[in-house]
Write a structure and sequence with these properties.
- This protein is mainly α.
- It has a single domain, classed as MetI-like fold (Orthogonal Bundle), CATH 1.10.3720.10.
């Protein structure tokens, strides 16, 4: 019986597997092959050449990669700090208000990311909504906070807030209230309950939320372009430039492959530490 169920499971997964191969693995294979082609060629019919990877180091493209990974790490950490209290409230405190809050957060996803970021530009720019009104009322203003690294990180936090909040709330909801109450009855402080019960038991949600936020932030380009200007060039911007204005597909493919390998390795490692059955509620 178990063997039949396994065969049925394999057959059921075949359509989705075929879609993944065509839509995901095939483009990744093309990117990998192009990454070892000579510079500025537009055909795969060439002898392998690894010069694009040397260009990444010699021309400083690794700096944009470090900027992307660094800002993604900082924004992910800040997102966790910001979202934890709200996620805890959604999972344990707010009750029916959780639905209202969920709808409010999801509604932000119905508006284009670029439109929302341009809204912040109009709000924070010199003479914008905040500074302009402040100057009109008090006769003085301040320099715009736009076009620097902190405002880019703010944009990443703002855009990817839901991707940390909802997995975190799901993870916190998996923490049994009985375990927290028992620890409190035994004299454990709130800090100790947080460190030894809440965080370990909510780890699946923490890992999923952190992976989603980090992966999306590491590959983001709109935040750095719209809110950061040319203050920082991120790896996604270099990839776009290589494929378009630079007309250097092998370089763009090599940059993409480096980012894919790094993020893919982190994602595989993180997912290997997550109990997916527990998250999906399949454990009994």
């Amino acid at each position: 019986m178990e063997r039949i169920d396994r065969r049925l499971g394999v057959l059921s997964a075949l359509p989705l597997s075929a879609v993944l191969v065509v839509s995901f693995l095939a483009p990744m294979l093309v990117i990998a092959i192009f990454s070892v082609m000579p510079q500025k060629v537009f055909s795969l019919l060439n002898m392998p050449d690894f010069s694009s990877f040397a260009v990444i180091i010699s021309q400083g493209y690794h700096k944009s990669l470090l900027w992307s990974l660094g800002m993604a790490a900082v924004s992910t950490f800040l997102l966790f700090i910001i979202c934890w209290p709200l996620a805890y409230g959604m999972a344990k405190v707010f009750n029916r208000f959780t639905l209202v809050l969920t709808i409010a957060v999801v509604m932000t996803l119905f508006v284009s990311e670029n439109i929302r970021l341009f809204g912040w530009v109009l709000t924070l720019m010199k003479g914008g909504l905040i500074e302009g009104h402040f100057r009109a009322w008090f006769g003085t203003g301040w320099d715009s906070p736009l076009y620097n690294v902190p405002v880019i990180i703010f944009g990443l936090i703002y855009v990817y807030f839901p991707f940390m909040l909802f997995p975190l709330a799901q993870g916190i909801s998996m923490v049994p209230d009985d375990a927290r109450q028992a620890a409190a009855d035994l004299g454990a402080s709130r800090w100790r309950i947080l460190l030894e019960i809440d965080l370990p038991l909510a780890a699946p949600g923490i890992v999923v939320g952190s992976l989603l936020s980090f992966v999306l932030a590491a590959g983001a380009v709109a935040e750095s372009k719209i809110m950061g200007g040319q203050a920082v060039i991120v790896i996604s911007d270099d990839v776009e430039t290589a494929f378009t204005f630079g007309q250097n597909w092998p370089l763009g493919a090599a940059l993409s492959l480096v980012l894919i390998v790094i993020i893919g390795g982190l994602a595989v490692y993180g997912v290997s530490k997550v109990d997916l059955d527990a998250i999906m509620g399949r454990k009994r």
